[in-house]
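Final report, section 2: Outcomes. Of the targets proposed, Inositol-1-monophosphatase is the one most frequently requested by collaborating groups, and we therefore present its record in full.
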Amino acid sequence: MISNEDLDYCYDFVLKLTIESGKIIRDAIQGSKKIETKAGDWDLVTQYDKKMEEFLINSIAKEFPKHKFIGEETVSSTNSLPELTDEPTWIIDPIDGTTNFVHSFPFTCVSIGLSVKKELEIGIVYNPILEQLFTARRGRGASLNGKPIHASKVEKLEHSLLCLEASYATIESIRDTVLGRMEAFVSVAHGIRTMGSAALTLCYVAMGAAEAYHTDNLMAWDVAAGVLIIREAGGVVIDTNGGEFNVMSPKVVAAGNHKLAIELVKLIKKADFTTLQKKLLH
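The predicted structure is given below as tokens.
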């Protein structure tokens, strides 16, 4: 269906496009933004998210008219999540870390992944503010600004820097679960970090800057590129329950190695059990 030469061309074309689109973020981050909300007051979108996605999809579709797309803002506007098929499909988050972008906090990025036959083949995550370009091709390793990166080999939680998305505690229905897991992480790890961009956090695990990352409540465009980048850097991504990861329904436990990932799954299950016990007592 699609040859290695075709994938090479796809990669080169979209890499240039990603860098070009990053200029929109870089030029706009300090300026005023027109802000709207989607799922809630915490789920922000700006005119630049829409402008970026339109630019990316239109440019890719012109070059590859038979390819499909799953894009955050398109899904939001149609309120319909397309099925991931065997067709070449670009999974796009035009600005991951929109809240960071709104506040001029420099952890924000463009995230683009390509799936072929439901297999991630290309991952590109670009933070144009800090000039960090993370890239991966299936079977060819992962890089930061052209230099190979490798995930951490630390296997113990107590020696780890762990990442999670604490901001989801704003959602009342999952607040107790999120805070329970955060308390468990704080109690055992060297430290915890919350970065506000799933794509960048996955890349930081890929480069060994953090040992592991956990979050539920994501969508395919948040993780597609970053998941490939971690795997190509020698790390692992599994489901929060310890099973196989599903990019279209992503519950993420990402770690530098499988042993640490399983330890994190156990910690999460223990935290959830403690949270449930507390609820039953009240």
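The mean pLDDT is 91.
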